[in-house]
UniProtKB/TrEMBL annotation:
Family: Belongs to the glycosyl hydrolase 2 family.
Limits of the Glycoside hydrolase family 2 catalytic domain: 310-448
Pfam families reported for this sequence: DUF4982, Glyco_hydro2_C5, Glyco_hydro_2, Glyco_hydro_2_C, Glyco_hydro_2_N2
Domain of life, source organism: Bacteria
Keywords, comma-separated and alphabetical: Glycosidase, Hydrolase, Signal
Name of the featured protein: Beta-galactosidase
Family matches, as PANTHER family: BETA-GALACTOSIDASE, BETA-MANNOSIDASE
Length: 981
C-alpha cells in the first residue's frame, strides 16, 4: 500500500510539474514544545511529551480575540519533524519553502545548523541538499522566538514592524511549508532570503485591450549544478481557465556547468481574457527545461494579464479610469481562535466579500501579506496595495536596510500576481533618496509588471508614483492620491440602535487616552451613516470633477481585528463585517456607494436597520441609495420622500413603528423607478436554523481545512429574528476540532461551545484533524426553540509518511462575477477646472502660487491681520464660474467666514464647514476673470481636533503651523476654480 501511494503521489506531481520535479505539502507530522529546550536540535532528543501539530499552526493562535494584541504571548518554541526521502523521487536538490514564520527562526537538519530567518513576515527557502540523508530518517528542528523585542542576531537591531499596535503576534509557523525535489538542472524558487534565487517572471507587453492581444514574455532563473555543459530547450506552454492549451513557444540555450542563467522566451497571444476587478481570470503558464527531448523540470505559474497606467491623478486599468474603493485591512486578516492560519477557501470567502461590497482594492497594512491571501486576491479579482514592512515613520541605518531587503523579497515572491497593483514603501512619508532606492529595487526585479511604487503621504514627491494621506482628502493632477486609511469609527454588530435591546446609546463607552471616544463606540445606524459621510468627501472630488482629482480611498478596516483598539471591547470593531465576516449595515452602505468604476450604479439601495420595534417607538429611518429620490412606505402607505444629504443618505424623521412591511423605492430625477427594497417584521423566535459552508473544491482531512456553520434564530416562516440574542448550545460528533466563534461576553466566548446569536445570527468554525475522515454532525439547541442539526463528510488526503497533496489549496474557483469590464468611458466630466494665470494678495503675494501648485504641504497665508486676509486669482481668460474647491489650513477644526468676488461682484458669503480636506463652495454661474477670496471676519474653532493617533499624536489639520489664536489669518493650501456643467 505504501509503495502504491508513493507511486500515486508521484504520478499526480509529474502531471503538474514535469518528470523530475516533485512538490509536497510539508505541513504534517510536526511536534511542538513551548519554551526553550537545550539540545532540541539533536536528532536523538526525546520529544515523546511534545504536542503533535499540523501546520499552519501558530502556537498562541487561540489567543486571537481572547487577548488584546499587546498581551499576545511570546516565548521561544521548538518545532520538529522526522522525514525520509520518498523512494522513486528525484532528489539531487531538495528545498524547503516556508511561507513565513513569526518572528526569528534557526533551522537544524540532523543536528547541523542550516540557516536562519528573522524578518517575521516573508517567505524564504532552505537548501537541504547537502545535509540530507537520502537513505534514512532525517530530523528537522526549528527554534523560533516571537518576542516583541526580537533583535537581529548579526546587528542587534530590532525590526520596525514588530509592533504591538498593528502586527498581531501569532507566533511560530502560522503559514504553510512545502518541500521541493528537483534534478540538478532546475528552475529556482522565487525565494531570495537564504537561497538568493528569483524564480520565474511572467509579464506582458504591447497589451491591446480592444484587440485582446499581448506579447507574452517568460523569464526563468535556471541552475545547472552538473559538471557538464547542457544543451536545453526552454519551452513555455500557456493554458486558459479551462486548462486548454492556448500557445506553445520555445528557445534553445547552452548551460555551462555550475552556472546560473536567465532563460527567456516570448510570443504573441491572441484572444486574451484580461484580468480585472471582480474578474479573476487566470492563465497557467508552464515553463519547462527540456534536455534531449526529455522534460527535466517544469514549473506552473498562475498569472493574469492586465494593463495599468498611473497619470493625471488617476489609476487606469485596462485603459479605463478606475476610482480606488476598498479597505485598509490588517495583514493578519485574522479569525477568532485561529489567527491568520485559516483554510485557503476561507481566505477566498473573506476577500471575495470585499469584492461583493464593491471594493476593488485592499491595502494590507504595515507588513507583507502571506502568499495565501495574495493568491486569493488574484482569484477573486481584488487589487492589492502591497507593503514590505514599516511602522509610522521613516528610519535610517540597519532598520532601513531591513525594509529594502523585505521589499526585494516581496517583489520577487509576488511579481506574477496580477492583483498586485501597488508597492507601498511606508505607512508614513519617506525621503526622496529612500524613495529612489525602492524604485530601483522595483525596476531591478519587476520592471515590466505595471505596478506603481509609492508611500503614504508623498504629497510633494517628484518621483513617487502614488501618494495619499491617512484620514484626509488629497487631490492631484500628477501621481494618483489615494487615501490609505479613512474612517476609524468602531461599533459592535450587536448594537442596532438606541431603540433595540440592549439599547446601546450611540457613542457610549470609556474614554480613549482621556478623550471622548464616541466615534469608537457607535451603533449600526450611526456607523453606516458615518460611512456615507466619509466616502462622500472622496466622491465629490472623483475623476471627472476637474483637472485635479482624488483617486479614491480605502476604509480602515474590513473585518473586526485583533489589533489596536479604541472602544469598549479588547479588539478593534472598525470592520464593515465582524470578526466572523458577518456583515454590518456599513457593508451594504459601501455596496451602494461603490458600485461602479467611477460613477455609481444608480440602482443601489439599502434600508439601514431592522423593522422589529416596540409599538411606541418613533425613530429616524435611514436609507442609502444611489438614485436621486427615495420614497418610504409602511404597509404600502407612503411616508413621503427622504431628506437627501451627502448625496447617498436619505433621512426619514420620526417614523412611527407599525408591524408589517417597511419598503423603500428609489427614483431617477425624471421619476423612473430604479430599485425597491423591503424588510419585514419577524414573528417571535421559533427555531434554530443551521447552514454549513466549506470550500467548493471539497473538504479534506489535511489538518487545516475548515467548515463554517451559520446559526440563526428564525420565526415560524423562516425569517431571521433581528433582535434575537438567544444562547445557543452546540453538540459536535466526528473527526473535527471545534474552534467556535465570537460574541460579546466573558472572554468574548472564544472556543466556547455555547455562545449567543447577535442580531439573530452568529457563526462558528471547525477544523479538520490530519488523517481523520468520516461523518461530522453538529446540533444546535436553545431553550424554548426547536433545535437543528447538519452533517457532512470529511474526505481523505492523498498521503504517505506525512507527505501529502494539499488538495484544499487546489482547484479553488475563480470569481468572474463582475465580467471583463466596461466598454465605454468610465469618466463623466462634470466640471471644467479654470487655469489660474497669477495671483495677488493682501500680504505675501510671492507665495500665492503655493495655493494652486498641486503641493498640499505648502500654502499661502497672510500676515494675521484681517485687513490683509484676501487673495485674488486672475484666470487665463474670462469664463463662467460657479464652484470653488478650497483646502484651508485647520480644515478639520476651523471655520472661515468667507466672501467670494468674481470681477468685484460678491457671489458667495458664508462660513466654511469643517472637512477631511476640501470644502466645495457653490454659487450662481458668473462670468469673470478675477476671483477674490476674502476673510469677512475672524475665523473660529468649529470642531475641536480632539482625536489622537497611536501614541497620542494629534491628527494633522493642515500645514505644520500653529494658527490656533490667529483669528485674522487666512491660509489656503489649495484652490480649484470650476465651471460646473
Amino acid at each position: 500500500m505504501r509503495n502504491f501511494l508513493i507511486l500515486f503521489l508521484l504520478t499526480c506531481s509529474l502531471v503538474v510539474f514535469g518528470n523530475d520535479r516533485t512538490k509536497f505539502s510539508f505541513n504534517a507530522g510536526w511536534k511542538l514544545h513551548i519554551g526553550d529546550a537545550v539540545g532540541a536540535e539533536n536528532p536523538t532528543f526525546d520529544t515523546r511529551e511534545w504536542k503533535e501539530v499540523t501546520l499552519p499552526y501558530a502556537w498562541n493562535a487561540e489567543e486571537a480575540f481572547a487577548k488584546p494584541i499587546h498581551e499576545h504571548s511570546t516565548d521561544i518554541v521548538w518545532y520538529r519533524k522526522s522525514f525520509a526521502v520518498p523512494k522513486g523521487v528525484v532528489s539531487d536538490k531538495v528545498f524547503l519553502e516556508f511561507e513565513g514564520i513569526r518572528h526569528g527562526g534557526e533551522f537544524y537538519l540532523n543536528g547541523k545548523f542550516i540557516g536562519r530567518h528573522e524578518n517575521g513576515v516573508m517567505g524564504f527557502g532552505l537548501d537541504l541538499s547537502d545535509a540530507l540523508l537520502s537513505d534514512q530518517e532525517n530530523v528537522l528542528a526549528v527554534r523560533i522566538d516571537n518576542s516583541w523585542s526580537y533583535r537581529e542576531k548579526a546587528t542587534n537591531s530590532t525590526y520596525q514592524w514588530n509592533d504591538k499596535n498593528f502586527n498581531a503576534n501569532y507566533g511560530g509557523i502560522p503559514k504553510n511549508v512545502w518541500i521541493h525535489f528537483t534534478a540538478p538542472i532546475y528552475q529556482t524558487l522565487p525565494l531570495y532570503s537564504n537561497l538568493k534565487t528569483t524564480g520565474v517572471y511572467v509579464y506582458a507587453k504591447n497589451m491591446q485591450i480592444d484587440n485582446k492581444s499581448i506579447d507574452l514574455f517568460v523569464e526563468s532563473e535556471v541552475k545547472n549544478e552538473t559538471k557538464s555543459s547542457k544543451q536545453v530547450n526552454f519551452v513555455v506552454e500557456v493554458r486558459d481557465i479551462d486548462q486548454q492549451l492556448v500557445k506553445t513557444f520555445s528557445k534553445g540555450y547552452t548551460l555551462q556547468p555550475g552556472s546560473t542563467n536567465i532563460l527567456k522566451a516570448n510570443a504573441p497571444i491572441k484572444d486574451v481574457n484580461f484580468w480585472s476587478w471582480g474578474y479573476g481570470y487566470l492563465y497557467t503558464v508552464t515553463s519547462k527545461v527540456v534536455v534531449d527531448e526529455r522534460v527535466v523540470d517544469a514549473v506552473d505559474t498562475k498569472t493574469g494579464f492586465r494593463k495599468t497606467a498611473f497619470r493625471e491623478g488617476m489609476v487606469y486599468l485596462n485603459d479605463k479610469v478606475l476610482m480606488m474603493k476598498g479597505y485598509a485591512q490588517r495583514t493578519s486578516n485574522e479569525w477568532p481562535a485561529l489567527g491568520l492560519s485559516v483554510a485557503p477557501w476561507l481566505s477566498d470567502y473573506s476577500n471575495r466579500l470585499m469584492v461583493e461590497s464593491n471594493a476593488n482594492l485592499v491595502r494590507w497594512m504595515h507588513v507583507t501579506p502571506w502568499k495565501q491571501d495574495v493568491e486569493s486576491c488574484d482569484r477573486v479579482g481584488l487589487m492589492q496595495m502591497l507593503p514590505a514592512g514599516d511602522a509610522e515613520r521613516d528610519v535610517d541605518g540597519r532598520r532601513w536596510e531591513q525594509r529594502t531587503e523585505l521589499m526585494r523579497d516581496a517583489i520577487i515572491y509576488y511579481r506574477n500576481s496580477p492583483s498586485v497593483l501597488f508597492y507601498e514603501c511606508g505607512n508614513e512619508s519617506i525621503s526622496e533618496a529612500h524613495m529612489a532606492e525602492m524604485i530601483a529595487i522595483r525596476d531591478q526585479y519587476d520592471p515590466h509588471g505595471g505596478r506603481a511604487i509609492g508611500s503614504r503621504e508623498m504629497l510633494d514627491s517628484k518621483i513617487a508614483e502614488y501618494g495619499g494621506e491617512m484620514l484626509y482628502t488629497n487631490k492631484s493632477n500628477r501621481h494618483p492620491m489615494i487615501a490609505t486609511e479613512y474612517m476609524r469609527d468602531e461599533g459592535l454588530r450587536k448594537y442596532w440602535d438606541e431603540y433595540t435591546y440592549p439599547y446601546h446609546k450611540d457613542g457610549e463607552g470609556p474614554l480613549y487616552k482621556g478623550n471622548d471616544a464616541s466615534d469608537y463606540n457607535r451603533n449600526q445606524d450611526s456607523h453606516a451613516v458615518e460611512a456615507v459621510k466619509r466616502w462622500w468627501e472622496y466622491w465629490t472630488v472623483r475623476p471627472g470633477t476637474g483637472k485635479r482629482v482624488s483617486s479614491g480611498g480605502v476604509n480602515i478596516i474590513f473585518s473586526d481585528s485583533n489589533t489596536h483598539y479604541r472602544g469598549k471591547e479588547n479588539y478593534r470593531r472598525s470592520g464593515e463585517v465582524d470578526a466572523m465576516r458577518i456583515p454590518k449595515d456599513a457593508f451594504y452602505a459601501h455596496q451602494v456607494m461603490w458600485n461602479g468604476w467611477v460613477e455609481t450604479d444608480p440602482t443601489g439601495l439599502h434600508i439601514v436597520g431592522h423593522w422589529n420595534y416596540m409599538p411606541e417607538v418613533k425613530k429616524d429611518i435611514f436609507v442609502i441609495a444611489a438614485g436621486e429620490k427615495v420614497e418610504l412606505f409602511i404597509n404600502g402607505v407612503s411616508q413621503g420622500f427622504g431628506e437627501r444629504s451627502y448625496n447617498f443618505l436619505f433621512t426619514f424623521s420620526d417614523i412611527a413603528f407599525q408591524t408589517g412591511e417597511l419598503s423603500a423605492k428609489s427614483y431617477a430625477e425624471d421619476g423612473t423607478l430604479l430599485a425597491e427594497k423591503v424588510i419585514q417584521t419577524a414573528d417571535v423566535p421559533y427555531r434554530v436554523k443551521l447552514k454549513y459552508v466549506h470550500g467548493e473544491n471539497g473538504l479534506y482531512a489535511d489538518g487545516n481545512d475548515m467548515v463554517m456553520v451559520d446559526v440563526e434564530v428564525v420565526d415560524h416562516k423562516g425569517n431571521r429574528s433581528p433582535t434575537a440574542l438567544n444562547m445557543i448550545d452546540f453538540q459536535i460528533e466526528g473527526p473535527m476540532e471545534w474552534k467556535g466563534g465570537i460574541a460579546q461576553g466573558p472572554n468574548n466566548y472564544i472556543l466556547s461551545e455555547s455562545l449567543p446569536v447577535e442580531a439573530g445570527i452568529n457563526r462558528v468554525l471547525l477544523r479538520t484533524r490530519y488523517g481523520k475522515t468520516g461523518t461530522v454532525k453538529i446540533k444546535a439547541m436553545s431553550n424554548g426553540l426547536q433545535a437543528d442539526s447538519v452533517q457532512f463528510e470529511v474526505s481523505p488526503v492523498k498521503a504517505t509518511d506525512d507527505y501529502f497533496v494539499k488538495e484544499s489549496s487546489m482547484n479553488l474557483p475563480l470569481n468572474l462575477s463582475r465580467g471583463a469590464g466596461p466598454t465605454g468611458s468610465t469618466v463623466v466630466q462634470t466640471r471644467e477646472t479654470l487655469r489660474i494665470k497669477r495671483s495677488t494678495a493682501g500680504a505675501n503675494t510671492e507665495t500665492g502660487i503655493n495655493s494652486y501648485d498641486s503641493n498640499e504641504l505648502s500654502d499661502w497665508v497672510n500676515d494675521g491681520k484681517l485687513s490683509t486676509a484676501w487673495i485674488e486669482y486672475t484666470l487665463d481668460k474670462k469664463s463662467d464660474i460657479n464652484e470653488i474647491d478650497l483646502k484651508l489650513n485647520n480644515f478639520r477644526s476651523r471655520s472661515y467666514p468667507l466672501q467670494i468676488f468674481v470681477d468685484d461682484k460678491l457671489v458667495y458669503e458664508g462660513n466654511t464647514p469643517t472637512t477631511l480636506g476640501y470644502c466645495t463652495l457653490s454659487f450662481p454661474r458668473t462670468k469673470g476673470q478675477r476671483v477674490k477670496i476674502q476673510l469677512a471676519k475672524s475665523s473660529y474653532v468649529a470642531s475641536e481636533n480632539k482625536h489622537e493617533e497611536i501614541g497620542g499624536k494629534k491628527l494633522d489639520d493642515g500645514v505644520q503651523r500653529d494658527d490656533t489664536n490667529a483669528k485674522g489669518t487666512l491660509s489656503i493650501i489649495e484652490i480649484d476654480i470650476h465651471n460646473k456643467k
